[in-house]
Design brief:
Beta-galactosidase, Chain A, domain 5; glycosidase; 3 domains; 13 helices; Glyco_hydro_36
C-alpha cells in the first residue's frame, strides 16, 4: 500500500509488516525518514517533527539520509546519479516536478533546474511481500549527456549501535561462501567488471547491528536484478549513517544519452525483516516464488546430466545406455551435455554450430529423444549460445560478430570468444537458431551455459548493458514460442545467479564443484537470498572429480537433496547395489521434494560445525523434513539433538521411517537425534508427519 500525505509532503510505502517513508524536505530533497516496522500514516506524519542533527560547518546534515543522491553542492558521498553535461558541468540540481501513484506503484519525477534532464524514481510494493522494488528512468531532451553512474536505488538505514555487512564471496568452484564483517567507515564496494554476475561476488548485501543471529535481530537487505556487470556500495559515514546503493555497470564504463533518449535502470529490491537472517532469507525466498520465478508452482524434476560420465565422448548408444540406467533409479529429466553438436569432439571447435554432429547422430537427435521419452523421462540439451569457437562455421562466416576492439588482440579463454548480442543481427541469429533447434526436436529443457567473461569490450555501456538486454529478450522470445521448455542458467557453475536471470529461467547451476562437503558451504551461502527451488545440486562419483575426496553415497545424496536434485555420475560404472540404493534415495527425495522446493527453510546448524542441519517445513505445517550431515566426530563426544523450528508445540509428529512419535514441544526444546552411521561424512534424512 502507498499513501501520500500532501500537507507534509511524505509518502508511506507499506508491506504486510514494514514501511518505507519518503519526505520532501524544505530544500526539495527526497529524504528517508523511516525504514523498519510498519507505521500508520498518522505515525509517519510525526517523523518530520523529530529533532534534526545539529548544524556542522562544511557538512550537509542531510548526507546519509537521501533516497535520491546526485552530485552537487556539499554532497561528497557516493552519488547514485552522476552525469557530465556537454559543457563539462557535473553537478545536478534536481527539483520535484510531479508524481504518479497507485496503491502499488509510485513514480516521483525530478528535473534539473537548468538542463533538460529528468529523473524518475519508481517504487513498487506488493500486498503479500515486504520487498520494495525500485528503479530509475533518466530522460534527456537536450544536448548529449554522459551518464557516469545511475544506480537503481539508494537504501537509507536507520541509526544502529553497530553495522555488520553480510555478503558472499568466491571464485570458480567455490561460489557463494558467506562472509560477515563489521562495516568500516567510508565506502565498501563489491562489483563485477566481467559482463556477468560473476563467481567472485553476488549483487546483494545484508546489514545488521552486529548481534543478529539466524532467528533473531533486525536485518536490512537489498538485491539487484541484473545479470551483467554491477556495483554495490555500502557507505558508512562518520555521522553513523549508512546507505546501500546498487546499480548496473562498473567504473570507467559510461553511457552517452542522446537527444530524446532514456536510460532505464534494472530493478533493485530492498527488504526489512525482524527475525534474524533466517527470516530475511525466507522472506526473499517467498518473494521470488510469488513475484520473480516464471513457473513458481511447478515442481522441478530429478535430473541426470551426462557430462561427468562421457565428457566429449558422446554417442547415441552411450547416451541411451546412460538414459536406461537413469530411468532405473527414478530420474525424470535426462540432459545431454557438451559434445552433441557441430565438430564438438573437443573444447576448441564447434561452438556456434548448433546442429547435431552427423557422425554421432546420423539420424539427428530424434532416436535418442524418442528413447528417452519412451523411458518416461523428459529430454534436455546443453547449449552455450553466447559463445563461439574460432574453429567453427559461424566464426568463419562472421568473425566480426564477437566482442572485440580495433587494433587489439582477441583474447581467447577456453578456446572461445563472446558473441556481441548487443548487435541486433547477432541476437536475431541466436533466436532463429535456437528456435529452429527447439522446433525440430522435442526438447523439454535447456541447460544454458556461459563459460567466460567479456574482454575487449570497450568503455561504452551500450555494449555491456545491450548484451544483457538482448539475452533477456532472446530468452523471453524463446519461452513465448516454446512455452513447455524449461531453462537452467549456468555460467561455469554459479557465475550468473541473480534476480534478473531468475525471472527468465527455472533453476540455476550453483557451482561446478560437486564435492558434497564443499557444497554444504556453497549451499549455505546460496540460500541466504535464493530459494532451494532454483538451486541445482548433483550427486557425482567418489572420489570427487574436482577435489579427490571420498564420501559415501548417502552423504552425497543427502547434501544434494537440499535443492533441485540432480545426478551426474557415471551410472554405467555403478554397481547394482549402488543403483539400488540410489533408487531408494531418489524415492526419499521425491517424498520430501514438496517441502524442499515449496516449503519454508530453516538453517538449523551451519556447515562449519561437526554437525550441520537444514529443515524444510510445509506451509501448512503438516510435515517437516530435516537433512543432517556430520563432517567428522571428534573425541567421541555424544552428538547433541538438532532442535527444530516453527513446529506446533502441542502437536505430535510421526517419523515416517521408524514410526516413532515425537512431541512438538520436545522437538523444539531438545530436538531430534538422527541415527547417524559411525565415522566421518555420515548423514540422515528425518521426515516427520504431523498426526
Amino acid at each position: 500500500m502507498i499513501v501520500h500525505d500532501s500537507e507534509r509532503r511524505l509518502w508511506v510505502l507499506s508491506g504486510p509488516s514494514s514501511s518505507y517513508v519518503l519526505h520532501l524536505d524544505d530544500h526539495d530533497r527526497l529524504r528517508v525518514l523511516h525504514w523498519g516496522p510498519r507505521l500508520t500514516v498518522a505515525q509517519a506524519a510525526s517523523l518530520p517533527l523529530l529533532p534534526r542533527p545539529p548544524f556542522r560547518p562544511v557538512e550537509d546534515a542531510a548526507e546519509g539520509t537521501l533516497d535520491l543522491t546526485a552530485t552537487g553542492g556539499l554532497f561528497y558521498g557516493h552519488a547514485a546519479v552522476q552525469v557530465r553535461f556537454a559543457d563539462g558541468t557535473r553537478d545536478l540540481e534536481l527539483v520535484p516536478t510531479g508524481q504518479r501513484r497507485t496503491d502499488r506503484e509510485l513514480v516521483l519525477t525530478f528535473a534539473d533546474r537548468h538542463y533538460p534532464l529528468t529523473v524518475e524514481c519508481h517504487y513498487g510494493v506488493h500486498e503479500d511481500s515486504d520487498v520494495i522494488e525500485r528503479h530509475l528512468v533518466l530522460r534527456n531532451e537536450g544536448e548529449p549527456v554522459t551518464v557516469v553512474r545511475a544506480d537503481s536505488a539508494t537504501w537509507v538505514l536507520p541509526r544502529m549501535d553497530g553495522y555488520r555487512l553480510s555478503s558472499v564471496r568466491g571464485q570458480w568452484g567455490a561460489e557463494t561462501r558467506l562472509h560477515r564483517t563489521m562495516l568500516p567507515y567510508g565506502e565498501t564496494v563489491t562489483t563485477s567488471r566481467r559482463g556477468v554476475t560473476s563467481h567472485q561476488a553476488n549483487p546483494w548485501a545484508m546489514i545488521d547491528d552486529g548481534t543478529a543471529g539466524e532467528e533473531h535481530g533486525e536485518v536490512y537487505s537489498c538485491a539487484l536484478a541484473w545479470s551483467g556487470s554491477w556495483r554495490l556500495t555500502a557507505q558508512r559515514l562518520p555521522t553513523e549513517r549508512v546507505t546501500l546503493s546498487a546499480g548496473a555497470g562498473h567504473d570507467s564504463v559510461t553511457r552517452e544519452l542522446g537527444v530524446g533518449e532514456e536510460l532505464v535502470t534494472p530493478v533493485c529490491a530492498g527488504l526489512y525483516t525482524d527475525g534474524g537472517f533466517g527470516a530475511a532469507s525466507r522472506a526473499w525466498h517467498d518473494h521470488q516464488l510469488r513475484h520473480v520465478l516464471p513457473h513458481p508452482g511447478e515442481t522441478r524434476p530429478v535430473l541426470y546430466n551426462s557430462w561427468e560420465a562421457t565428457g566429449f565422448d558422446v554417442s547415441l548408444d552411450g547416451q541411451i545406455k546412460l538414459a536406461e540406467k537413469a530411468a532405473r533409479i527414478g530420474v525424470e529429466l535426462f540432459v545431454v551435455d557438451d559434445g552433441w553438436f557441430g565438430a564438438r569432439t573437443h573444447d576448441a571447435a564447434g561452438l556456434g554450430d548448433w546442429h547435431p554432429n552427423p557422425r554421432r547422430f546420423p539420424d539427428g537427435l530424434g532416436p535418442l529423444i524418442d528413447r528417452v521419452h519412451e523411458l518416461g523421462m523428459l529430454f534436455g540439451l546443453w547449449v552455450e549460445p553466447e559463445m563461439v569457437n574460432p574453429d567453427s562455421d559461424l566464426y568463419r562466416a562472421h568473425p566480426d560478430w564477437v566482442i572485440h576492439r580495433p587494433h587489439r588482440r582477441r583474447t581467447e579463454h577456453r578456446n572461445q570468444l563472446v558473441l556481441d548480442l548487443s548487435r541486433p543481427e547477432v541476437a536475431d541469429w541466436l533466436f532463429r537458431t535456437l528456435d529452429e533447434l527447439l522446433a525440430k526436436n522435442a526438447v523439454d529443457f535447456l541447460k544454458w551455459d556461459m563459460n567466460r567473461p567479456f574482454t575487449e569490450a570497450g568503455p561504452d555501456e551500450r555494449l555491456w548493458t545491450g548484451h544483457v538486454h538482448a539475452l533477456y529478450a532472446v530468452l523471453d522470445r524463446l519461452r513465448a514460442a516454446h512455452p513447455h521448455v524449461r531453462v537452467e542458467s549456468c555460467s561455469s557453475g554459479g557465475g550468473r545467479v541473480d534476480l534478473g536471470i531468475l525471472r527468465r529461467t527455472d533453476q540455476v547451476w550453483a557451482s561446478d564443484d560437486t564435492d558434497a562437503l564443499d557444497r554444504l558451504e556453497i549451499q549455505h551461502g546460496f540460500t541466504q537470498l535464493y530459494p532451494a527451488r532454483v538451486m541445482g545440486a548433483w550427486v557425482t562419483d567418489s572420489p570427487n572429480p574436482y577435489t579427490g575426496r571420498e564420501t559415501p553415497l548417502d552423504f552425497r545424496f543427502h547434501v544434494a537433496m537440499a535443492g533441485v536434485l540432480g545426478i551426474g555420475g557415471a551410472l554405467t560404472e555403478w554397481s547394482d547395489a549402488e543403483l539400488e540404493r540410489a533408487a531408494e534415495l531418489v524415492a526419499d527425495y521425491k517424498r520430501i521434494r514438496p517441502l524442499v522446493q515449496h516449503g519454508r527453510q530453516y538453517r538449523l546448524l551451519p556447515p562449519d560445525r561437526e554437525l550441520s542441519a537444514v529443515q524444510y517445513l510445509a506451509l501448512d505445517g503438516s510435515e517437516t523434513a530435516v537433512l543432517v550431515h556430520r563432517r567428522s566426530r571428534r573425541f567421541g563426544h555424544p552428538e547433541p539433538g538438532v532442535r527444530l523450528r516453527d513446529l506446533d508445540p502441542g502437536a505430535r509428529y510421526r517419523d515416517r521411517s521408524t514410526g516413532r512419535i515425537h512431541h512438538g514441544a520436545v522437538l523444539l526444546a531438545h530436538g531430534v537425534f538422527p541415527d547417524l552411521a559411525p565415522g566421518d561424512y555420515a548423514s540422515a534424512l528425518v521426515h516427520l508427519i504431523r498426526e
